Amino acid sequence: MNGAGNLMDFLDEPFPDVGTYEDFHTIDWLREKSRDTDRHRKITSKSKESIWELIKSLLDAWSGWVVMLLIGLLSGTLAGVIDLAVDWMTDLKEGVCLSAFWYSHEQCCWTSNETTFDDRDKCPQWQKWAELMTGHAEGAGAYVLNYFLYILWALLFSFLAVSLVRVFAPYACGSGIPEIKTILSGFIIRGYLGKWTLLIKTVTLVLAVSSGLSLGKEGPLVHVACCCGNLFCSLFSKYSKNEGKRREVLSAAAAAGVSVAFGAPIGGVLFSLEEVSYYFPLKTLWRSFFAALVAAFTLRSINPFGNSRLVLFYVEYHTPWYMAELVPFILLGVFGGLWGTLFIRANIAWCRRRKTTQLGKYPVLEVIAVTGITAVLAYPNPYTRRSTSELISELFNDCGALESSQLCDYINNPNMSRPVDDIPDRPAGPGVYNALWQLALALVFKIVITIFTFGMKIPSGLFIPSMMAYHHHDWIIFKNWCRPGADCVTPGLYAMVGAAACLGGVTRMTVSLVVIMFELTGGLEYIVPLMAAAVTSKWVADAFGKEGIYESHIQLNGYPYLDVRDEFTHRTLATDVMRPRRSEPPLAVLTQDTTTVEDVETLIKDTDYNGFPVVVSRESERLIGFVQRRDLTLAIKNARQKQDGVVSSSVVYFTEDAPQLPASNPQPLKLRRILNLSPFTVTDHTPMETVVDIFRKLGLRQCLVTRSGRLLGIITKKDVLRHMAQMMNQDPESIMFN
């Protein structure tokens, strides 16, 4: 045999990129888990050899906590910067602070010595644009000029946002949560969590929210936090070289994102567990908790809102709720479920139209048009003009002696015997009625405009139009529980429950949603109303369709996401789904010791399969293992460069011992190390219900179908998804990726 003494298994010395995946492909969770176990075993055995190796093993064990600390610090800092920038730029549309142009309206008047309590929003240092340019603060001319400049600023901000996204980071658009869910399920989207995406998403999120569009920063903050997680993963080979371990970090980063978005660290951990994560071991739960804690602490240290809270709309209620109020809470849940269904269907229909028509070719024009319409319609109504966070804050807050809102305009009668601050017993003034019809218009406007805004080529979170409530406490129903001088009904509580119901109807969140809302209000007393509304909205919405907004966008984009919540009840077998079908050419396979390098290269060139089964011979079709296409390509390329005597006619063998070849033959190439000797197999009579469950729970990329050890075919994740779509009378070709 020629060169038998020099034969080597070429992967004894690992080369770059082996075991990695191509873009828009799914990872093999079992393979990643196995590689991490091997790595850990090696480190543990080496740690007994010397003190230095022991220190290295301790550093490796602590690297996870270090990554969590860094994610929490960076995501908390970025959230604080975004909040401060949005506050300033939102106010910039209306005016400027003369003493320091970088101050928002509120900060400007804080520093003023001439601000009175009654006119706390007015101070000489803050001037609207019309007053600054013409010297007139009031009148039709000043109103028109302020109106025009408000629209101009909004258009400028949105144009900058969409232009930066288009030119520098196309992946920075949208909320990011559908893609994060898909990535956490094992899909590779290179660049989606890259440095450029992080930078552009942070800048354009500020611009998009400041432009006044009907969107929020909560979803994009999850994307920003996951970008931070991906950035810090690259510092540690434990995470950068293992896609499974990387996804554990990204799950924790998602928790940190929600923690700073809503000021709800525990809600963030539950959101990651309930809504976005695919694989969530106990270790990830602890680390998510730590990352969310550090992120919340960092944001609290920055104190962007100046109220020592993590969010602008933090409220505290002290009034108890009554059993009879469960009825309106449940009705709010019903409304939230119906609204969620309407929103999902309308938004998906519009996004599908955007993808399939000429509209999708002009994203800049679409953003400019929607911003223009939003600004023109929003300015006249004070409830749509202000930022969404300020609006929620006003609707959630209770009326008190310090409130200057129109919603608290109750009539003061000097002849009344009751004290002045006894607000529940005072009749509503004209401000309350005025605010109610303005809120009704704001609700309709937000419902319609959000449908067209979510999904545009700018960073856009899902802002849910908050609900409003109004009470008349002299009604007969309230007589039994209203005590003199006490609130009968808390309108802010109804607004909060309504907002939770709507968010639940759109996203189908339950546990995490209730905890987030509970952390927002700081009151354990309102958990039951929130639970009632959240569960009702989910039941009502599920009656019309199981998919939430994020799952619907995953389906629309054709991502290979196998939802753990979907049930497969059809009586089909593995043989009905496996490839090749009867009309298709036979399965492309490699033999264990008779295939040449040229045969392998031709097979790779002529097919686009992600891997190939290895069999004993084409006659027997007895299965040996499975080899990945990418590993095969890299191994042959590397062998040609580094191993002497490897030519096109060299035999490739996957066995332990080299085949017996004539002396005149060129040196063979041993590739046993890249062969998976334990590929997952099922028999041809395995029910598809079991196969789907295996793919879900083990995170498989493909599984081979055999009968008595003889290879019959292959089932990939894409085949499973297409079969499920077919069974549900959907288009199987909508699943585009592998």
Number of domains: 3
| Overall strand count | 12
Structural class based on helices, strands and sheet pairing: mainly alpha
- By DSSP (H or I, 4+ residues per run), the number of helices equals 26
At the first level of CATH, what is the class of the largest domain? Mainly Alpha
Q: Measure the end-to-end span.
A: 42 Å
Average pLDDT, to the nearest integer?
Answer: 84
Roughly what percent helix? 40-55%
Write the layout of secondary structure elements.
Elements lengths: L28 H18 L4 H42 L2 E3 L7 H6 L15 E3 H6 L5 H29 L8 H8 L10 H16 L7 H16 L3 H4 L2 H20 L2 H12 L5 H21 L23 H31 L6 H16 L3 H4 L2 H9 L33 H24 L37 H17 L3 H11 L5 H18 L4 H9 L16 H4 L12 E2 L3 E2 H10 L4 E5 L7 E6 H14 L8 E3 L15 E2 L4 E2 L4 E3 L4 H11 L3 E6 L2 E7 H11 L11
Parallel strand pairs: 3-5, 7-8, 10-11
Antiparallel strand pairs: 1-2, 4-7, 5-6, 6-9, 11-12
Helix pairs in contact: 2-7, 2-8, 2-10, 2-12, 5-7, 5-14, 6-21, 7-8, 8-10, 10-11, 10-12, 11-12, 11-19, 13-17, 13-18, 13-20, 13-21, 14-17, 16-18, 18-20, 19-20, 23-24
